[in-house]
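Running this now, will post back.
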Amino acid sequence: FFEALPWAGVLLILAALGWRIGGAGLAVLVGLLGFFAAATGLWVPAMQTLYLAGASTLVACALGIPIGLWASRSDRVSAIVTPIIDTLQTIPSFCFIIPVVMLFRVGDVTAMIATVAFAIVPAIRYTYLGLQRVPQTVIEAATASGTTKWQRLWKVELPIALPEIMLGINQTIMMALAMVAITALIGSRDLGQEIYKALPGAD
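Update: finished.
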């Protein structure tokens, strides 16, 4: 999508998003970095990186946040999920590439699957911890006010846990960007490929 648009138009969109999220400073920073990518001939790889990291983050959050929510509601699910995400955190990032290459063809889809598997852990863990740390007194007060289970979740617990959930999303984005650079080894056509080409002996 971004590759089909003029680079100046994409820069304006990204700068506007930066202005909306972080003010003038972030807007200027995004604009300068985007212009640097265009001026150095790295615009297409940069947009591929944005696409892969963005799509992987969306999938990781769409899967991880509900899993974290489910684990916070069920001790049995928590007992299953916690060891799995603890194990995933100890596995080196390169090891995520091996099974996906064995099961799928080399390319962007394989890179996205590996990235999602690597980046999903913060989305699960921070959602779980955020909901677990909601004060019990607040939950009891909401229950005494006559709220249903879903009303208590959407209007009380999630707003209180939102800062930790957002921190999990932030970490998911960072881990997705880190993994996208490594997936150049399995054929992704992003900035990671440029890094790989620049390594000594890569040719």
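The two ends are 31 Å apart (CA to CA). More later if anyone needs it.
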